Amino acid sequence: MTAPATSERPSPASRLPTELLFRILEWMPIQYAEEVREDLVAWTITSSCPGLREMSLVCRSWREAAQSILFRSIDLARRYQVCGFIEAAKARPDLAYKCQSARIGMAYGTPEWHASEQDQQELSDRFVDALELVPSLRNLVLRTLMRDSHDRLMHTLERLPLSSFLLKMYDATEEFDGRALMFTPAEIYRAIALPTYAFELNWRPHWDPSKTDYALPPDLSTRIQRLSVTVNSPPGFQRILRMVDKSLTSFSVYTEHPFDAQGVVAHFSALTGLRELRFESNMPAPVVKHNRWFADVIPALKRLERLSVSEQAAPPCFIRSLPPSVKLVEYIYWDRRPDTIVDSLVEILEEQGEGYKFGLDEFVLTVDEEAFGDTVDEETVEDLTDAFGKLGVKFRVGFDVANIPEMQFELVGRVREVLGREGRTTVGSLAEWVPASLLARLAPSLPSKSEAFHLSLATFSPSSSSRIIPFRSTLQGRPPVALGREIRPSENEDDGVDVGFEKFLRGEKWGFGESEGAKEGENGVRELRGVDPKDVKELVVFTADRIQPFLNSLSTYSSAATVGMLGTSTPFHSPSHAPFSLFYGAEEASTGAVGVAIVRDSAGEEKQPRLDYGGLQPLGEPYEVTSSQGNIVLSLSSQNAARLLLSAVNDLFGTSASNLSAAQRNQEKEKEFFVAVYEGKPEARHVSRIMAGDPSRGAMSVETEEDVKKGYYVVFLHHPSEPTPLASLPPRNTLTFLSIPASNIPPHFSSSETPAKGDVIVLDSFIGASENGVVVKRRGEKARVCAIEGTSVGLE
Prior knowledge:
Blueprint: H1 18-26, H2 45-48, H3 52-56, H4 62-70, E1 73-76, H5 79-91, H6 93-97, E2 101-104, H7 117-132, E3 139-142, H8 150-159, E4 164-167, H9 185-192, E5 200-203, E6 226-231, H10 234-244, E7 250-255, H11 261-269, E8 276-281, H12 294-297, E9 306-310, E10 328-333, H13 338-350, E11 362-367, H14 369-375, H15 378-390, E12 394-398, H16 410-419, E13 427-429, H17 436-442, E14 466-473, H18 499-505, H19 516-522, E15 536-543, H20 548-553, E16 561-566, E17 582-584, E18 587-589, E19 593-600, E20 610-612, E21 617-618, E22 623-629, E23 632-636, E24 639-640, H21 641-653, H22 662-670, E25 673-678, E26 686-694, E27 699-702, E28 713-718, E29 735-739, E30 766-770, E31 774-777, E32 784-786, E33 792-795
Parallel strand pairs: 1-2, 2-3, 3-4, 4-5, 5-6, 6-7, 7-8, 8-9, 9-10, 10-11, 11-12, 15-16, 29-30
Antiparallel strand pairs: 13-17, 14-19, 15-19, 16-31, 17-18, 20-33, 21-28, 22-23, 22-28, 23-24, 23-27, 25-26, 25-28, 26-27, 29-33, 31-32
Helix pairs in contact: 5-7, 13-15
């Protein structure tokens, strides 16, 4: 019997039995998928695609799915790994395109770590080659590379859509014989200023202060919002703080080095936009005293919401200096005697006295579990819990460091990504929370104490006679109306004349008297220029502020009914801190407007928008406008306009203001009044808030961009009780927009903050809410904004 000849050429993995191949791939770890973190958790192809095992038993197509999952995240440290990846990526660019996360560079303990300088340089070039083949890379861990390729590397990084970037640059060791690593301080600064950068940077380089130039390159700016730093070089750290003081919202700092308080306090205190912070130090006494300056920095961080700080970084008395914005504090204490810190906290809290209240919601003491069990008894914990409870703060003990910072903004992006698949264009904006009282009526089965996450979504199905056209407008006007709007000499003068002046203020090329915005608005919406205006039947819009030129442009479509809203204010609700967040396909805007136009060629029933002012009631009789200028009413029925309003208010309360109690006077002072303006019967032209009145002169200012003309009629209005949005629930398959008061509920735009499971309630109506008002235009009328609380506008 002869043994078959064997070949030294390896067989392709595809020839392995399916069950064996699946088992190999199943346990091949993909160590980071969504984010790059130090504590990376391994996961498998079956955890990402649970049905893959069953698929593998009946067909071969499971291999394509497995390949797609495996290429989603790569780890390249050895020469054969990076060369194999480059070969596969060139042969299958579709798989390389799926790569979202990568860990690349020489790793300590591998043969390449001890290779010659020439070999290390050649390998570093291959690592950069690999990065150039993954155009969709979002998360990157970059380990040690040699320096000659740094220019090409920086250009590659600038082209990648990175959202998370971790530089794991080890200190120079004996193995490198003093050879230069990839990054100098100047290159670190450039990395922070990457134009595509939006999320995180972590680095831990060490430079010799006597041989290093720490100077910031000129004209370098950044929009980085999330930063994680292991500080081995305090001089470089101070310069980083100078770069990020205007953009940073989430910050994690770890150091084993003392900082010079005089050099770092001012830079740390300038991080006024910071909302999440971890500052952890690991220095033994007496060196630890050098970081006591941090307690002086905390009061300056007036927007801080979540704080994690170690005992070596700040003494426990720092809790006396917390700004009111802080809602969660973690205090890290790894000492073997946690009973001492518990006693100190009890003493500090008892010193606060009766009636003292923290703005804080929760305080977490993170300690070593074994040491805590050995030194702290239950009675001591109860004393500390009670001491915090008396101050309105929840207390708990933790044995693992909390996930601070954890603020992320990927949730909205993921929703938009899903909605934009298959070539669909989506438009919309971030909106205010729908009031809990309305949610309870819309969804009675929703638990009353649960926090509901809601998404309003409407889709359009075209027919043979109708279609939909999305559009984006960049028209922008003057700031909002003041108490008395300047009377312009010509009604035809357009807000667009401000375009040239605004370009001048931004330092852009401009021309005197430019009116580009006016010319654009005269022809309506750009995307609708090929459409007969009379065929535009409905418009749904989402806008920023300063939109009067855009509203004026809608007059082109006189037969269109228009509904929509001003987006909610989002400077602290979005990663870019934009004042408004409007979405148009893959684009995001903070000015102008987005929307859709419904075009129908056939004639049919054309319903007007539903408009309800949330229970406003008349206050007195109608009056004719006998004198006015712009939005200022001077006389009504030849009488002092402001005195007529004051008289109506006195009639409402049953007496004059001087005879009211203090509580009633305060109620009268806080109560808002409105005016309905009639051009003719039967409906009001518009309803607007009364901004101010001067009985001595008779002037009464109305919050409107329209002139209140002589010959119009007005009626004073008020809310007899708290405004109730949507007194009757909207019909099915309708669009409804609400004007509501701003909520104080913190935003939840991270997927980690949303519940993993829970009841999903689907309603048959679209509801969007904003504290900035709704947009409405009835057929044949002008478009306008109404910001009266409780107002709703709807369209079937």
